[in-house]
Every structure is written in C-alpha cells, then in structure tokens.
Recover the amino acids of this structure.
C-alpha cells in the first residue's frame, strides 16, 4: 500500500480487506483500487470572458470539429481508393468508345 501511494499525493484513508482461508503473505493476488479525487474549488475550464478568449475558444472548437471529422473519415481510405480507381477506369473506357450520334 505504501508503494502505491507515493505517487498519489496525500492519501487520507487506506483500507485492506482480506478474504479467504489460504492467505499467504507476499504472494501474487488480485487487487482493486478505487481513487476518489477532491476538488480544490477551482474550475479547470472557466468560461471565456473577453472577446479574445471567446474568439480563441471558437477557433479551437472549430478546429476540434474539423479534426474529429477527419479522424472519422480516415479509416474509410480503402473505400475512397477503390472508388477513385473505379472512376478512373470508367472515364478511360467511356473516352475510348466512339460516339455514334452523327447524322
């Protein structure tokens, strides 16, 4: 428990519960850890107050939307590749067919 808590900061409460009959010290076991955080009363994301802060927040939000759309479409690249190759061969085939509309 001490080795786990050195990185967490101040630990206010620790509890150990042992169940079963075959408890042997210093053996491998299953462990569940529940961490509860306390807020210092400071909001991490305060609302922007000035025009500059609001403008930056709007630009940042727009950029996040663009990156989200790009990341959504990115896994579909094989489909776009197949469609592009199909379109290329479709155009190439239609270019080589003579037009019989002359009277």
């Amino acid at each position: 428990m001490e080795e786990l808590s050195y990185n967490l900061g101040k630990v206010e409460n620790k509890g150990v519960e042992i169940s079963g009959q075959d408890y042997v010290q210093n053996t491998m076991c299953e462990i569940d850890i529940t961490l509860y955080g306390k807020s210092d009363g400071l909001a991490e994301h305060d609302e922007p107050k000035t025009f500059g802060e609001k403008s930056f927040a709007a630009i940042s939000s727009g950029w996040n939307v663009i990156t989200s759309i790009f990341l959504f479409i990115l896994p579909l690249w094989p489909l776009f590749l197949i469609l592009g190759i199909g379109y290329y061969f479709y155009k190439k085939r239609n270019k080589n067919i003579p037009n019989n509309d002359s009277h």
Q: What stands out?
A: The chain is about 45% helix and 0% strand. The chain has a mean pLDDT of 77. The CA atoms of residues 68 and 74 lie 10 Å apart. The radius of gyration is 31 Å.
